Amino acid sequence: MAMLLGGWRVGCATCRAVADLVAQGAYGVADAGGRTIDSCNVDQPLVPASVLKIATAMAALRILGPEYRFATEFYIEGQGNLFIKGFGDPTLVTEEVAGIAQQLRSKGLKRVENLFIDTSAFALTMQVPGQEDSDNPYDAPVGPLSVNFNSVPLQRDATGRIVSGEPLTPTLPIMLELGQGRPSGLHRVNICAQGCEPEQRMAQYAGELFSAQLARAGIPVAAIGGIRMVPASGAPLVYSHRSTQTLKEISRSLLHYSSNFMANQVFLACGAKQYGYPATWEKAQQAVHQDLVQLLGSATAVEIVQVEGAGLSRQNRVTARAMLQLLTRFRPYADLLKKERGAALKTGTLTGVYNYAGYLPDGKAFVIMLNQQVNARATVLDRLKRLYISPRPS
After folding, report:
1. Euclidean distance between CA atoms 83 and 11, whole angstroms
2. Which residue(s) pair with 354 in the sheet?
3. What is the CATH code of the structural domain delimited by 71-245?
4. Where in the chain is the domain with CATH 3.50.80.20?
């Protein structure tokens, strides 16, 4: 029989209460102080999928700071060679690039002989762990200088003509390449949709977009020279751009839209902040883990195994207990989560993985982690809401 404690029911919602729904999984509910009210399989390590983005955002907000802004640097050599050095800004969309072009013009840049991309701020031995080889934008690669989330908007009409798929972005050569063989209609594909060497393709896309926007600003570009490091001397820094969005604003977007690209750019930035550039997966893993140790204690942090920042890898593991403790610390940033199904929550979905983590309407933290073929997370959440949302005073 259930009993009332502090205005909500406890004692009846055990694993038995969801036995018809949970074949392989866990759940937990905690009060505002982090005290577990009820749980099922709370210490079982499970694949978190995208609920892991909460850990990435929490660590980044602590390591980098809510007001952190990503940098992109511009150097001029001789009579007009322009070097662009990126540091992983995930927000370099077309509008941002257009603003940068205007800034360079205001600083006296009139013509570019060769445009070079410096990729030395990242030293990745592989792309994102767990990332699939698909056309989808959520499988886009990550890198130090990336534009439009490394995804390409294009449109192919009935005659086969290929143009840009969005009004603010000009038609670029990369669109003509990636649009070949596609059916008529609007498409957004990641830059490696047809297979590529990611670093070269990212440099190509960034070079083409910057070249087009510089030309629109009245700065013609004679040639795009590909990847080359900024010379050690003779190429002064002429402009250091800071992202328009702060990390807190970026975190809201990566959580609302579950952006794998943004999450891993932020994850890598944490490692570079703590251990210096170039950014690597190993530095990011170490930086985020050490921060979670400080935040949650070593006994809890060890229950969060994180090899990348988005939750794509099936090597990631989290227990419901650790996630509840993380949500207790994340509470000041609860407004960054999307409102869905009557709660503030983050979803996590892979094939055979169906998770929720967030806050019930009255503020209690909850986590539901199902590593099974049947997606019953919504029904489990509804049961938890019936059991644990505090009744309103009469």
Report:
1. 64
2. 349, 370
3. 3.50.80.20
4. 71-245
Rounded distance, CA 270 to CA 286, Å?
A: 9
Angle 85-90-92 (CA atoms, 0-180°, nearest 5)? 65
> Is the whole-model pTM more than 0.90?
yes
Kindly report, as residue ranges, where domains of CATH 3.40.710.10 are found in the chain: 3-65+248-388
Domain covering 3-65+248-388 assigned CATH 1.10.10.10 in the classification:
no
Q: Which of 286-309 are b and which e, b meaning 16 or more Cβ less than 10 Å from the residue's Cβ?
A: ebbbbbbeebbeeebbebbbbbbb
For residues 333 and 255, what is the distance between their CA atoms, to the nearest angstrom? 11
Query: Given a cut of 60, is residue 1 above it in pLDDT?
Result: no
Residues 6+ apart with CB under 8 A from 349: 49, 50, 355
Percent of the chain with pLDDT over 90: 88
In percent, the amount of the chain with pLDDT more than 70 equals 95
Which residue's structure tokens are 């699939």? 132
Task: Find the mean pLDDT for residues 310-320.
Answer: 97
Q: Contact at 8 Å (CB) between 57 and 169? A: no
The mean pLDDT value for 372-388 works out to 94
Residue 341 pLDDT exceeds 70: yes
Specify the residue for token string 């009579």: 79
Handedness of CA 83, 86, 89, 91 (dihedral sign): positive
* 389 has a pLDDT exceeding 90: no
